[in-house]
Amino acid sequence: MLNAAGIAKQGSDTIFSWWARYQSAKAEGRDAVNGTIGALLEDDGNLAINKAVDAAVRVAPEVEIAAYAPLAGLPAFLDLSKTLALGDARSIFEESGFHLASTATPGGSGALYLAANNLLERGQTALLRDRHWGPYKGFLENNGIDFVTWPLLPPNGHAVHPYFAADEFEDQLDQLCSKQDKIMVWLNDPAHNPTGLSLGVEGRAACLSSFVTSALNNAEIGHTLLIDSAYSLYAEEPHAWADTILDALNSGMPWPENLLICIAISLSKSHTIYGLRTGALVSIHPEKEVIDRISTVMSVTGRQTWSAAPRVAQYCVSEMHSTEEGGIAWGEERDRLKKLLDDRRNNLKVECKKLNVDLNPTMDGFFAWIETEDPETFAESCAEMDVYLVPLTGGVRIGLCALSESDMPKVAEALAKASS
């Protein structure tokens, strides 16, 4: 009774299966360490919750909990989402004549779905980094889209932008432009999942330059750069891409009419409301007609897929941020949670250095990463020491978000053993 697409779906989610193994070990009374899940936990293992957001949700009027939201989203939330995506740079974009569209979605995943469903043709190919969040594959495949990759890091290093493989990125762009009439890149930055890598000022500038050059050289080919900003509000430069784009424009970069930039935001992480499934897809373009059309298309897609995104978090978070007091309270809690992550990352780096463990570059967000040719065997070795991590393509993800600071010596020891 299944169609061909349904028949192809099998297996369980790697992250949740390794989380289940950790839970089983803990239930058996073992001193197990959890580095599996992608939710931020306090040092005592309880879910970390931004208290300002929690307080805002708990006073929601009944109707804001029970009612549908408008198909595109609550106007106040759509306005807020543009600020969450662009920060203080938003006003500069608007004053410079750029137009913004936003559509509310069920989490950041919904924003990715909107892009996959509308911005490439079925049978075409998207471009991702070779280390990326696993569900990207499913969002693309469920919309009939294939993908190719470019390396996370320059294979031979680079003195100016050590975290962006420009040559390989440009090669893939050229190949795709020779085959199809639309290009779409998904780039999770800053605070990349699964590595914690951030491109840096030079890397972002080089990436944008390469992409804009491709658009200019292929005027008949639509170019969409989607920035997945799921973890960016825990980065040192939370609105880094907005700043990079403005810097480029101020330096004379033209904005080709065949260039669209989208930012996928997720309140799951930034506001610790994972289960309320709230996010948005924000789009930027200099022509109002383009943005109006994008807004219509994304809203109709949402209607045809999930009807309307959940209302309650749209309302509560918008209300909270509408006052200076609410914004400050959220920011103080966000800063506290960011410090948890920063302390854990720094501690793990110190412990790994003691044991000569070669972690990948990791700067921001929820994760760290270690490259290995045999991720399953590596993770199994760590599990023998009751350290549970996630094997993925090309390496093992270390969930700093779920670990406590006191876990880091044990994690480093397990990494050292597995690396030997």
Report what the structure shows:
By secondary structure, this protein is an alpha/beta fold. It has 2 domains: 4-50 and 327-419, Alpha-Beta Complex (Aspartate Aminotransferase, domain 1), CATH 3.90.1150.10; 69-310, Type I PLP-dependent aspartate aminotransferase-like (Major domain) (Aspartate Aminotransferase, domain 2). Helix content is 46%, strand content 15%. It is built from 17 helices and 12 strands. The strands form 4 sheets. It has a 5-stranded mixed sheet with strand order 2-8-7-6-5, sandwiched between helices. Helix 3 crosses helix 14 and helix 15 packs across helix 17. The mean pLDDT is 97.
- CATH homologous superfamily (4th level) name of the largest domain: Type I PLP-dependent aspartate aminotransferase-like (Major domain)
Mean pLDDT: 97
* Tally of individual helices: 17
Q: What is the CA-CA span between the terminal residues?
A: 49 Å
CATH topology of the largest domain: Aspartate Aminotransferase, domain 2
- Report the β-strand fraction as a percent range: 15-25%
Helical proportion?
Answer: 40-55%
Major beta sheet summary? 5 strands, mixed
How would the global form be characterised? globular
CATH architecture classification name of the largest domain: 3-Layer(aba) Sandwich
Rg over CA atoms, rounded to whole Å, is 21 Å
Instruction: Give the helices and strands as they follow along the chain.
Output: HHEHHHHEHEHEHEHEHEHEHHHEHEEEH
Low-confidence spans: pLDDT under 50, at least 5 residues? none
Secondary structural class: alpha/beta
Give the strand order of the largest sheet, numbering strands 1, 2, ... along the chain. Answer: 2-8-7-6-5
Count of extended strands: 12
Q: What number of domains?
A: 2
The CATH class of the largest domain: Alpha Beta
